[in-house]
């Protein structure tokens, strides 16, 4: 570099140096982020009336999931003074964009949320406690909103920062025709039975599991399904909620990882799982190229359309017969931005989604998920003999058994991209040991929390 | 242009007054120079705002631990220390260097070969068709190229179908999802994209070589190989320099092809600095570390490209 500078004509060097010095002076006066004004406004007074003034609610939602738009359209139909301006992106893009979009002057009113702790720490999310009181959301089952609470650097307790547009449940979808071929007459009751079915499928020439693992580790679904069963799910939840002392390096996680590696070695996942993305997985499953697919009820309505009558769903079985079901289940979380221009209308909309009969019906038929809300409101029914009806039933069963656990991928903002995805890809390719996997995930977790 | 304006004979006066640098003359020159700057100003402003300012900001951010939103913490050179000691980041930089072989050396070598072959058919409709076909990958957006190649290289894609059809089913695999083949597969996509550019540049360069040189070589008894080594290659020094510069930058700064075809996986096998900078900054919110990696990448590009620039200009190394 020094040699390069000596070769440059002196005038040019002086010009370059002064330009850089000028730039450095102009930008180095303050540390980045120091000039940010506080965005949190007073939460003292909230309105629960929508009024008749024209309002445009800015919404930032996930593309490919038509629920948010369907609800917005119905809301505008019922309240003609409210219009929605919806921006859609893929979930991973929202995860990356959310902090900057919410910190900008054009912050949306309602936004689909990735992980929440960082956003709360940076004062980007509106505290919904005043609305909780004003609307009487204490009539909702407390467990429903638990995942949406953020306390002192942990989730699960503290103030409410989001609401769900539907409350999803994950489990296993299966191709009924292929199930018949291998003699599966009913969903497996234990993990061992499930593994027997996998072996039968493999020997019968049927691809046992169709699971994506490309840009985001879809094999984390079966991994967590096993992890939830092999130990106390509270441990898993504590880790996700960043409770002090929680660790991923547990016997349950290790056993789950060993099982995943065993399944990979047995050829239960496709050989190209690491090159298969989410859309590819669903496409292959719809083509009848796999017996099982670990996925969530958000795909029910789509599967009912593409393979009517040929798909079943069950909650991942327990380790011993008759045990309590535990499944990854999370709200389709939406929050109100701290800089929202119409926070009262946004909260009104969120309350309406949970309590309006038509909105609840849309949550079921379009979103494929339980609408949540007060326990005394009926859950709209889905058409019989559909996989939607099955996922809805599973959701109610899980609620009754109190077995909902959030996704390990939601533990921190970067854990999925930085650790779970690359390490899971290594694991199923035999490039990582199960012990190495749990340690690598925990190491990244600690690194992130220490920042 | 400015000097031409400044010293141009004025017609009516130049018979009586010699064009010495009078005050009026200097003023006119300065005015002309000022006009010149005025023309450049819009571009200069854009350059300052969109190139210089981000460059300086990146340098500044690289000295902080910052999540992009909250208040940053001064860490000095710690981020650079991380870049040079973190085994994952070193592997990622190593991946980019491997890609230079595929993005740069292969297209240039193949480009020379193809250009030598198509040199004689550069005129007429056939020549136009050949050039168009060769240049096509450059026109296709890299994202589209990445998607198309992902299909071709998938386990049931065309390439594996062909392999199975000719009895090489044992070799078939998910090329972009396999730890051993993912990086070379990404490299092949890059080589395909850049081959056309190199070929067209080299064909253009070849068309400028004086035919007399070839004639002389042939009279001296040179065969096609000798002719290529003694005449074509030395004459193409500058074109090869341009090709290497463009393709090495493409290799080191690659993003689109990798993001679309593998997203950096499996594991970190195909992750390149461009992708990691984006991930660190936007996904993991480590703006400081991302900036430090960006600065290191910029220096790496300069370290690779500056010697080539000097060599291709014919200066002493």
TrEMBL record, chain A:
Keywords: Signal, Transport. Residues 1-30 form the signal peptide. Coiled coil: none annotated. Its main location: other. It is found in: Cell envelope. It comes from Micromonospora ureilytica. It comes from the Bacteria. Belongs to the bacterial solute-binding protein 1 family. The lineage of its organism: Bacteria, Bacillati, Actinomycetota, Actinomycetes, Micromonosporales. This is Raffinose/stachyose/melibiose transport system substrate-binding protein.
From TrEMBL, chain B:
It holds the Pfam family BPD_transp_1. It is a multi-pass membrane protein. Residues 93-308 form the ABC transmembrane type-1 domain. It is found in: Cell membrane. CDD domains: TM_PBP2 (cd06261). Its main location: membrane. The chain crosses the membrane at residues 36-56, 92-117, 129-152, 182-203, 240-260, 287-308. Keywords: Cell membrane, Membrane, Transmembrane, Transmembrane helix, Transport. Belongs to the binding-protein-dependent transport system permease family. PANTHER family: ABC TRANSPORTER PERMEASE PROTEIN, INNER MEMBRANE ABC TRANSPORTER PERMEASE PROTEIN YCJO. This is Raffinose/stachyose/melibiose transport system permease protein.
């Amino acid at each position: 570099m020094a040699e390069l500078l000596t070769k440059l004509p002196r005038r040019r060097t002086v010009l370059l140096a002064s330009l850089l010095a000028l730039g450095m002076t102009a930008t180095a006066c303050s540390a980045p982020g120091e000039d940010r004004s506080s965005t949190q406004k007073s939460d003292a007074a909230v309105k629960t009336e929508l009024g008749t003034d024209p309002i445009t609610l800015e919404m930032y939602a996930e593309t490919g999931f038509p629920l948010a738009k369907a609800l917005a359209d119905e809301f505008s139909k019922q309240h003609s003074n409210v219009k929605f301006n919806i921006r859609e992106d893929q979930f991973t893009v929202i995860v990356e964009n959310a902090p900057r979009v919410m910190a900008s002057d054009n912050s949306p009113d309602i936004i689909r949320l990735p992980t929440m702790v960082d956003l709360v720490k940076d004062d980007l999310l509106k505290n919904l406690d005043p609305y909780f009181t004003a609307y009487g959301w204490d009539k909702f089952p407390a467990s429903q909103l638990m995942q949406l609470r953020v306390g002192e650097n942990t989730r699960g307790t503290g103030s409410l920062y989001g609401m769900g547009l539907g409350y999803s449940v994950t489990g296993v979808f299966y191709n009924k025709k292929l199930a018949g071929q291998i003699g599966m007459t009913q969903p497996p009751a234990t993990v061992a039975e499930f593994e027997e079915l996998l072996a039968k499928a493999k020997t019968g020439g049927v691809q046992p599991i169709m699971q994506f693992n490309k840009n985001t580790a879809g094999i984390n679904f079966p991994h967590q399904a096993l992890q939830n069963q092999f130990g106390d799910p509270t441990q898993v939840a504590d880790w996700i909620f960043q409770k002090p002392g929680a660790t991923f390096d547990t016997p349950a996680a290790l056993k789950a990882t060993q099982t995943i590696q065993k399944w990979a070695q047995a050829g239960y996942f496709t050989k190209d799982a690491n090159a298969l993305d989410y859309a590819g997985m669903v496409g292959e499953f719809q083509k009848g190229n796999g017996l099982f697919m670990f996925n969530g009820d958000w795909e029910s309505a789509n599967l009912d359309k593409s393979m009517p009558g040929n798909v079943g769903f069950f909650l991942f079985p327990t380790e011993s017969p008759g045990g309590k079901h535990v499944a990854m289940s999370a709200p389709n979380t939406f929050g109100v931005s701290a800089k929202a221009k119409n926070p009262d209308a946004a909260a009104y909309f969120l309350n309406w989604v949970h309590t309006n009969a038509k909105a609840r019906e849309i949550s079921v038929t379009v979103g494929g998920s339980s609408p949540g809300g007060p326990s005394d409101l009926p859950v709209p029914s889905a058409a019989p003999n559909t996989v939607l009806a099955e996922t809805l039933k599973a959701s109610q069963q899980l609620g009754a058994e109190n077995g909902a656990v959030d996704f390990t991928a939601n533990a921190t903002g970067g854990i999925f991209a930085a650790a779970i995805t690359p390490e899971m890809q290594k694991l199923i390719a035999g490039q990582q040991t199960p012990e190495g996997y749990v340690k690598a995930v925990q190491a990244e977790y600690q690194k992130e929390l220490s920042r | 242009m400015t000097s031409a304006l400044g010293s141009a004979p004025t017609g009516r006066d130049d018979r009586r007054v010699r064009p010495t640098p009078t005050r009026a003359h200097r003023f006119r020159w300065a005015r002309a120079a000022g006009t010149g700057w005025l023309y450049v100003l819009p571009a200069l402003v854009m350059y300052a705002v969109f190139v210089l300012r981000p460059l300086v900001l990146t340098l500044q951010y690289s000295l902080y631990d910052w999540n992009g939103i909250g208040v940053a913490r001064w860490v000095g050179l710690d981020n650079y220390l991380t870049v040079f000691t973190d085994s994952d980041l070193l592997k990622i930089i190593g991946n980019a260097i491997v890609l230079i072989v595929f993005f740069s050396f292969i297209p240039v070598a193949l480009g020379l070969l193809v250009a030598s072959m198509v040199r004689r058919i550069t005129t007429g409709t056939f020549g136009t068709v050949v050039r168009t076909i060769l240049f096509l990958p450059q026109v296709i957006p890299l994202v589209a190229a990445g998607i198309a190649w992902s299909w071709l290289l998938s386990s049931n894609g065309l390439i594996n179908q062909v392999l199975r059809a000719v009895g090489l089913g044992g070799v078939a695999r998910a090329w972009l999802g396999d730890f051993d083949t993912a990086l070379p597969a990404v490299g092949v996509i890059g080589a395909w994209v850049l081959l056309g550019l190199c070929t067209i540049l080299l064909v253009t360069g070849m068309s400028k070589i004086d035919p007399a040189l070839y004639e002389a070589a042939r009279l001296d008894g040179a065969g096609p190989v000798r002719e290529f080594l003694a005449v074509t290659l030395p004459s193409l020094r500058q074109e090869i320099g341009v090709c290497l510069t463009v393709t090495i930058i493409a290799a080191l700064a690659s993003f689109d092809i990798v993001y679309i075809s593998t997203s950096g996986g499996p594991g970190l096998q195909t992750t390149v600095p461009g992708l990691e900078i984006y991930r660190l900054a936007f996904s993991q919110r480590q703006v400081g570390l991302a900036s430090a990696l960006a600065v290191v990448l910029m220096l790496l590009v300069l370290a690779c490209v500056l010697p080539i620039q000097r060599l291709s200009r014919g200066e002493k190394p």
